[in-house]
Amino acid sequence: GRRVERLVEQARQFSPGVVSVADPANVSVIRDALATSEVAGKVDVVSGDEGLLRVATEPNDLVVAGLVGAVGLQPVLAAIRAGYAIGLANKEVMVMAGALVRREAAAHDVPIIPIDSEHSAIFQCLAGSSPNEVSRLILTCSGGPFRTWERERIENATVEEALAHPNWSMGDKISIDSATLMNKGLEVIEARWLFDVEAERVDVVVHKQSIIHSMVETADSSVLAQLGWPDMRLPILYTMSWPQRVNCSEQTWPRLDFLKMGDLTFKEPDVEKYPSLTMGYAAGRTGGTMTGVFSAANEQAVAMFLDKKIGYFDIYNVIEKAMEAHKNDLILDPTLDDIVNSDLWAREHVKKVVESGVCKELVAV
Predict the structure, then answer these.
(1) Pairing verdict, β 212-218 and 223-227
(2) CA–CA dist 159, 337 (Å, integer)
(3) What's the DSSP call for residue 275?
(4) Angle 267-272-273 (CA atoms, 0-180°, nearest 5)?
(5) What is the pTM of this model?
(6) Is 84:110 a contact under the CB 8 Å cutoff?
(7) What are 141-191's pLDDT values in tens digits?
(8) Percent residues over pLDDT 70 in the chain
(9) Which residue, 59, 72, 132, 350, is most buried by CB atoms nearer than 10 A?
(10) For the segment 196-229, what is each residue's pLDDT rounded down to a tens digit?
(11) 236 pairs with which residues across the strands?
(12) Torsion-angle region of 7 (φ positive above 0: left; ψ -120 to 50: alpha; else: beta)
């Protein structure tokens, strides 16, 4: 979106027909940079929301949706309607519009291959299984940077501390979601729509080593797991090569060494420290526009936390207030316009709550 130098470097290397950048002001910067290269005149440079739609619907084999937040919904729907397979790393798309996206994918016979490490793991474990053979899905999480902290200490956590994930290297928004465990609340809802299971059949366990990326319990009580080092290159590679697997040499790809790996441990998440899970399940049970409000309120709250406008636990508080306020306006079978409007409403509601100064008052959803 904004890494102009990286985009120029990639355009020079791969000579795509079109590239898109978030800020229209950067279009001329990129064009000027490419004008002196071998791809001069070969790459169309576009921008903004229209640019995303253009890129998503260019002729291709697979659209990798790696955007963060609600901005990814329209491009994903456009790609599906154009008949292109989706590699989905943008979990908010399924959280806010899971039913709609599933209907569109079925109507256009388009596969959705998850890239998030947890959902990629489940996708791999489910290969060859029918829905009635699945008992439950088990999402793992590392517990983030505050896994060993007491709740009282977490209340005063800084932005820098929340961004310091012990296992994964991720963007700012996803790193904060991991610290708050909001990512698991979102992933429970995502799993519900990706794999057509009720939210109550999706469990979450803390697995600090991040070696088992998720598990599937089958009807006969067997448990299937996908293991690997905490490295996002593997699920990305699997998505882009699916349904085949690429033969990676040991020289270029580190193998999992069970003798060096050490112990694998598991524990129940602490919902007192991480109320995000309770909210995620509540949103998932309610359904309709509530899941989009949950996601949008979180996105706005995280942005305000990163800007140091609110404290760490205020993230939970403003999301709960948005969900509580939305109950009277809930739409159970929303249209795309309903979903978009609810998303915008949730963001504005969070801003108003923060401006009013009552965001520190916790309510029960």
Answers:
(1) antiparallel
(2) 34
(3) T
(4) 75
(5) 0.92
(6) yes
(7) 988 888 888 888 888 899 999 998 776 666 788 889 989 999 999 999 999
(8) 96
(9) 350
(10) 999 999 999 999 999 999 999 999 999 999 999 8
(11) none
(12) alpha
- Give 216's contacts (C-beta < 8 A, 6+ positions apart): 122, 125, 126, 129, 134, 136, 137, 138, 223, 224, 225
Give the C-alpha separation, 184 to 281, whole Å.
Answer: 10
Bridge partners of 45, per DSSP, are 19
Dmax over CA atoms of the chain, in Å, equals 63
Polymer length in residues for the chain: 365
Which residues are within 8 A (CB) of 50 and not within 5 positions of it... i.e. 6 or more apart? Answer: none
Sequence-distant (6+) residues with CB within 8 A of 92 are 68, 69, 70, 72, 73, 186, 295, 299
In whole angstroms, what is the distance from residue 191 CA to residue 210 CA? 18
- The enclosing H or E element of 21 equals strand 18-21
pLDDT of amino acid 364: 42
Chain centroid to Cα 154, Å, comes to 23
Q: Of 349, 284, 288, nearest to 318 (Cα)? A: 349
Element (H, E) at 306: helix 290-306
For 325, phi and psi rounded to 5 degrees?
-70, -25
